[in-house]
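Hi R.,

As promised, here are both runs. First protein below:
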Amino acid sequence: MIDGLFETHINVTHLERSMQFYGEVLGLELGIIDEARRIAFYWVGARGEAMLGVWEKPKDQVLPQHFAFRSSIEAILERSAAYLEARHLSYHNFLNDDTKRPQVFGWMPAVAIYFDDPDGHSLEFIAMLPEPARPEVGVVSWETWQALRSLEQNQD
């Protein structure tokens, strides 16, 4: 019955500022804007693949939320830092340990990096890794994940 997640919605304090962020800074394609309802819908990925709804609400109705954009391993490892820096966006890893290096969630496994939107929503670029899950390692740096893989391969 469920094939995936098609849309998510967030509340923001200023619609035009958020439209500038999601449309111009991140480059999402605007699907439609409903001025009367103070909402904008953006396509995420290819048109019709997924959607983000951005709703303007009073400040007391805007609570920080989290969602992730699916990306590729190569994009996260090789281009995410330059992409975010070119857009003047501060970024961090899951543990927020000031290294700004992507980290791997061993239980999935997936590699990810984080940044925030103007309302403090936590956004993430994430990519699944094509190898077995290792929940016992927890959350580790990409370098540690690679070292663990290398150790495992050497033991075979």
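And here is the second one, sequence first, then its structure tokens:
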Amino acid sequence: MSLTHINPAGLHTNPAFSQGVRIDGGGSLLIVGGQDGVDAKGAIVSDDPGEQSAQALRNVLTVLEAAGASQADVAKLTIYLQADVDLAAAYGAAAAVWGPHPTAVTVVRVAALGRPECLVEVEALAQLPAG
């Protein structure tokens, strides 16, 4: 299994994300459902968007690890932010947790999430290594 990051010369490049990701080889597709900034008991970790973003990504990493994968196997993240959330705060915290693993990313601003106190929700698509 391999991921090839596609960043054509005609498009903007950014070290934090890829414009496209091609998945080749065997293995299974892992779909990580929306992860909020909650702890293992389901409690919101903070009312700070940066802390919620960091926790949501740590929760994604927990699911990846349980499936035998890591952020290097993630082809796409979708990040949902409440409309009034400061994107810079969320991005800064996310970069600290996620590290240098650019993926295809879509950021969507929404009026509200399933739990109104949640400011951020993250879902992922990953290719699990064959075997």
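A quick note on the second one: Helices lie at 49-66, 87-98. Let me know what you think.

Best,
J.
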